[in-house]
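Problem: given the chain below (399 residues), write out its structure.
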Amino acid sequence: MARSDRQASLTILSLAIGAFGIGVTEFATMGLLPFYASDLGVSEPQAGHAISAYALGVVIGAPVLSLLGARLERKRLLILLIAFFGLANLIGAFAPSLDLLIAARFAAGLPHGAYLGVSMLFAAELSPSRRSAVAVAQVLMGLTVANIVGVPLAGAVGQMFGWRWSFVIVAAIAALCALAIARTAPAVRDGVPSNPVSELRALANLSIWLTLGIGAVGSGAIFAVYSYLSAAMIDAAQAPAWSIPLALSCFGIGSTAGSYLAGRLTAWSQFGASLLLLIGLAMSALLYAAVVGSWPLMALSVLLMGLMSGLVIPLQMRLMQVAGEAQTLAAALNHAAFNAANALGPLLAGLALSAGYGWASSGVVGAGLAIGGILVLALAWAHARRPRPPMAVQRPTAL
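Solution.
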């Protein structure tokens, strides 16, 4: 039994390494935006398309790869997903133009949602039911640690040695993860969906799509600000180079505390937690817009935004309630929704910047997206409160 517990712990650690690599490549690309824009000879709003391309890859890849791999055992599927992720990052490191970088970022995003969704379910399967939630949190801790340590380090490496080395490092992390899973994870087939069609049918539930919509719109507030943070600090605040990794670490510290906060709020109320976090995102985005020009205050506002970034937790718990037979697909789609926000936020903020509204406009766009998330939340709340129609009673036919 002790050996089995140790194997489960090592497997969860291996899965968390992959989550760490995913977190680094997703967020470090935003921090490195000014550097690869300059190297490739494009404007910063144009370079932002590489961020949106990754997010689009997640949105498309999460449902498609989850369904295509539904009949594979979890171990084999996870190795294939993280290996593909590493290869795509390596290709991005050698991209000679923005178009090829965008294509590589799109490819790197394809396995993102499927890997995290399947990892969460696999970790839960390997743990006793009373500890399954803890196991899932341990896997996702890789994303949190990435924001505290990995993203600032990748940003520092990118500044000192070139942005391409950040992608090489992520590819190496992915290779380490694949090897670790191969060596530690058991071959478990229990819980693998045997009929992907049944999962697709379960997605006819409107509650699932409203829940996903909250994250897809509301979480865009984070990415509208975060994507252009480095460029705004350099251009509008004349921030020293060392302050950018510090500001990125502030977001990571805030998101770590935010995960704990979101968990406590979710235990009280899923809808209440979502509302409070969305209000917090809107307020911190407006604060960012107000303090652009002072890099210490910009870093503080980003820390507060990180504190409100745990929206994924109440939404995941809501999905577990309403997804029915579509648990695997819904788990992947939750990450897809988060990355739809990753595409929407930079796109709208980039349009505002291209129109000449200044760096503060990204904060205003972020506040608008958070308010949009509140509106979708109101629709989801109203739908959840609708009385269910009574079951039809068969009446005897008249003779």
